[in-house]
Fold this sequence. Notes:
alpha/beta, Arc Repressor Mutant, subunit A, D-Maltodextrin-Binding Protein, domain 2, 5-stranded mixed beta sheet, 12 strands, 48% helix, 19% strand, elongated
Amino acid sequence: MTAFDPDLVVRKLTSRLKMRHLMLLLQIEQHGSLTRVAEHMATSQPAVTNALAELENMFGVPLFDRSVRGMTPTPLGAVVLARARALVHDLGHLVQEMEAVAAGHAAHLHIGVIPFVSGQMLSSAISRILPQGRQITATIHEGQGPALLRQLRDHTLDMVVGWATPSVDMTNIAFEVLYRQQPRLIASRRLAARLGRSRLEWNRLADLDWILGTPGSPIREQVADIFLRAGLAPPPPSVQSDSSKLIGEMIVASDRAVTILPADIADELVRIAGAAIVPYSFDWTLPPISLFTRSDGLRRNVDALFAAALREVYTKGARAPG
């Protein structure tokens, strides 16, 4: 096998690599067949075959394994694909930043957030970023932590606000803890008033209609753990959802529905949906809310400014009474 010559590869890539080559790689990964790629790109299969051969010649090694079941990336091909996705996403971000600046803004941010991050705190952090008197524009991507971190790695996102759990893949990821959430039991106002007149009794709570997160979510597991430590089987959920808005609507619509949520989310549901907090205290070991960034990526000035605003907002929120 020919020895890998990094200097030769760099010379070939800088003189011959084009964006269409990167798009071709992503199309092959998606379709797994040069025939389907040709159909999707409205060109001939020989043209696609020649383009791939040209690309593999630049790298000096095969990027895909061919078999009767289709084309799959080689180990080196997987590395090239990851960088190709990042470059394509960066190009899209460049266009959005150009649009933002042309409209009088400073820059555009892509921020990933898990469902149980305070929207009020997040919007407060965004509003604090006013470089040179011009507001940023931002796209908020809501999702589950693992999916958001994958998007952070491939440059779809600029940063992620979510839970730092032991299972998080920290490859090429840096993080810092922003604050720790406290638990609140929430219910409709009538049910909260009734529950608040007596001490905490887990047997009584187990008989109510619980609205819980989807299986495997940290909050769902934490609620189950609280019941188990009280010597009781976790209650089956009447509704499963990771949407705080839906949870709030379900809570206020029933005098039997309850849930346990982080205090900042509970406060928002009190303000927005009309839910009420039951004044109980109990243990809580939910992972801390953290800011995730790429450890090997470009750090723009606006990224650093937004991170500083998040620290300030979340520090004040964590110190707020109640």
